[in-house]
Each structure stands twice: as C-alpha cells, then as structure tokens.
Amino acid sequence: MDKRKKVSKRNYFRIKQDFRRNNSLKNLSNQLRDLLEKKLWLKILIAMGLGVLMGLFLGPFGGYVDPVYAEIIGEWIALPGYIFLGLLKMIVVPLVFASIILGVASSQSMSALKKTGLLTATYFVITTAISTAIGIGMAFYIRPGKFISGDLVESALGSQTQTISTGPGFDPSALTLPSTLIGGLLPSNPLGALASGEMLQVVIIAVIIGIALVSLNKEQSTPMVSFLTSVQAVCMTVVKWSMTLAPIAVFGLLTKFTIKLGIEALLGMAVYVGTVLASLMLLMLLNLLIVSLVARYNPFEFLKAIRDVMLLAFSTSSSAAVMPLSIKTAEERLGVKPSISQFVVPLGATINMNGTALYQGVATIFLAEVFGIDLGPFQLLVVMTMAVAASIGTPSIPGVGIVVLAMILNSVGIPTSGVALIMGVDRILDMSRTAVNVAGDLVTCKVMDRWVREKPERKAEETSKIETKNPEEKTGDKVKTNTDLTASESSNV
C-alpha cells in the first residue's frame, strides 16, 4: 500500500513537472517559433504590420526623421525586398517557358489540349468582362468622383482641366488596337522575346512548342521534356531559397512604401479607395461562389489554402513574382493536376487580370465624374472592350496598370493628366488587385481541373462497362449455340 502511494506521488510530481515544463516561457517561445517556421502567411502578416509602423515612424507622419534621410533609410531597409524581387524576376521567364511547355505537352491527346485551352481562354475573357462590369457598376452606385472638390483637381492638374472636351470623346485610333496587339504576338526572334522578357510572346512561343511536342512520338519528345523538367526544377529551387527572404522583403518594401506615400494621400482619396476595395471584395465573393458551385470545393478551405499566395501577391504587387508559389499551392494544397496548374497559372499570370480590369473600370468612371464628362453606352462598351483587350497584354509587374489606364482614358476622351489624381494611392490598390488576380488564377485552376477531368472519366467508365458486358454476352451466345447443336444432334439420332 505504501509503495502504491509512493508511486502515485512520483507520478503526480512528474506530471506536475511536465505541466510546468510545457507551460514555461521557454516552451511557449519554442511553440511560437515553430508556428512561425511552419506558417509563412503569419510571418508575412507580421512583417506587413511592422513595415507600416516603421514607415509611419520614419515618414512625415511621425516627424522624427528628416524626409531626405528617411527616404535614404527606406531604400536601405528595402534592400532585401529588391533582392527578393530580383531573384524572382530572374527565373520567371525560364519558369513560365518551361512550365507552359510541360503543361501543354503533358496532355494525353490533342483533343484534351484543345478543350483545356479553349475553356481556359473563354473563362478568362468572360470573367474579365464581368469584373469590368462590376467595377463600372460600383463606381456609378457610389460615385466617388462627387467627393473630390474642384480645388483638389486644380491643385493637382493646374490649368490642364480647362482643355476638356465634353463631346463623345471617342478616339478612332482605339480601333487600331487589334492590329497593334496581334502584330506583336508572334515575334520574329523568339530568343529576343525570351531575353527581353516579353511575357505574352513567351507564352505564345511556349504554347506552340508544347503543341508540337504533343504531335511528336515519345522518342522524339522525351529529350526536350527531360531538359525542361530540369529547368523547372532548378527554377523552383531558386524560388525555395527566395521564400526564406519573403518576410524580411515584405517588411522592407512596405516600410519604403509607407515612407513615400504617407497617410495624407490615403485620407484625401478615401472614398475612391473604398470603392475599389469594395468592388474587389465583391469580385472575391464571386470567385468563392464559383469555387463552391462550379468547382464543388469548400470556399473556406480554398481561402485557407491560398492565403500564403494572396499575402505574398499583396506585398510584391506582381502576379509573376508569386507564380511559382501559385503552382505549388495549386498542386499540393488544392489537388490540381500538374497538367492543369502548369498551363493555367502561367497563362493566367499573363492574360488573366480580373482585379486590374475592375480597377480600370472604377478609375475611368471616377475621373469622368471629376472632369464632368458623361459617358454614354457606347463609351462604356469601349471601356469594357479596352479593359479586356489590355488585360491580355498587360505585363504582370508592379505599376503597369496605371499605364494601361492612361490608354483607356485616352480612348474615351478623358484627359490622361487625371492619372495624377490617383497616382498617390495607386500603390496600395495595385497590391490589392494583384492579390485578387492571383486568387482568380487559382479559382480557374480548380474549375478547369473539374471540367477537363469529368468527361474522360465517364468515357472510361462506359468503355469498361461495355468491355465487361460483351464477354458475357458472347459466352452466353456460345452456350446457346452449343445447346442448340446438341439438341439438333439428339433429334437426328
């Protein structure tokens, strides 16, 4: 009895010591460190918050550091961010080239390839048009241009506001966009397109080479497929190295951004920023609805799976920079086939700019209201067409959306000088719409993974049923004929 009491006391003290050890400050810090090591999104989120706070401290809002020195300090703090973006930009062209070729070449047949390409392109065009319509509709509903005073416009643009035409404002040169766009699709020098980083041309070259590989026999295509597989593996290794810099890079880039922008620009354009963000949230809800109804996937699980990608896209403002992580997320966390993810994600990073098209719709209506220009149905149709067409050729790099916006403004007679009004807040909107662009690419992956997979499986099931059914029918027929023969023989006897 005494021994049992002693053993129970020992166990009690051992459990108590283990409880104290597990709840010690050191153990809690170890758990926190493990949590940070496993969850990239949490590290990026913390880095974003610290970067904004550091930027406010060093910038004009804090007033503790001279603006000249603050800008220099911000540049040095952003150095890891420049290295991070440089590494990703260095490998993005070979990765896009190899991934698209492998994605196309991995198709089992030319019919499956045609189906995937046609469905993906059609889906991109339709969703981009819907996104632009959402932006235009939200801008007409909220009317953010009414909250901007004429004094702000005059101080930002000076006397340029006096030279505004209130007519229809359609520029006939906009009709030459197809010839300009199509003329630059097929490069005369493919190596020059790869060297200069012309992403749309790189995508088209890769698709053509991939289709050619599908048409070849296995012996002829295997060497090139093996080489491109090695190129893709090398690029993904560099991406893995660069991901270790991601939180530090986000901290540095956001610190520099906050120092340069300040808080005044955000407050002055709050309604416009709110309109764009509300429109992007509505588009994101539409994406989740598509995931739920079309892809038949839990939208909450989808958000949980893509949070790393969205946060990194928000921080870098580049769809191309996060493309390797998007492919990895699609395959490992969303269960998308490599033949789909390696084709859709690089293609989507080049031509699927839903968030950017939405932003261009909101910005066009906003500046039209600021300048007092009424856009009719024809001008709105031109805006939608230009936004969809421009998103196809928009490079997936930070800040390019503002250049495309200037082209759209010119096509409907709105002074391009109005871009100066929204330049101050474009950076944060660029970050937000890039995150939505990347989410749209991953939604497309899930949709295509379901659509392309269903019918081949049904055909396989039907053929298997036929194959299992025919032998029975044949054996049954043989039995019948044999019995008939024996019956006839016995009757003859």
Characterize the structure shown.
The protein has a single domain (46-455), classed as Sodium:dicarboxylate symporter (Proton glutamate symport protein). 81% of the residues lie in helices and 0% in strands. It is an all-alpha fold and 493 residues long.
Number of strands: 0
Number of helices: 21
Largest sheet, in brief, is: none
The fold-level CATH name is Proton glutamate symport protein
CATH class (first level) name? Mainly Alpha
Shape: globular
Distance between the termini: 97 Å
Helices and strands, in N-to-C order? HHHHHHHHHHHHHHHHHHHHH
Q: Which structural class is indicated by helix and strand composition?
A: mainly alpha
Query: What is the total number of structural domains?
Result: 1
Q: Whole-number radius of gyration?
A: 30 Å
Strand residue content: under 5%
Runs with pLDDT <50, length 5+? Answer: 15-29, 154-171, 454-483, 485-493
Give the name of the CATH superfamily. Sodium:dicarboxylate symporter
Q: What's the CATH architecture? A: Orthogonal Bundle
Could you report the average pLDDT, rounded to the nearest whole number?
A: 73
**Percentage of helical residues?**
over 70%
Region (Disordered): 454-493
Keywords: Cell membrane, Membrane, Symport, Transmembrane, Transmembrane helix, Transport
Subcellular location: Cell membrane
InterPro entries: Na-dicarboxylate_symporter, Na:dicarbo_symporter_sf
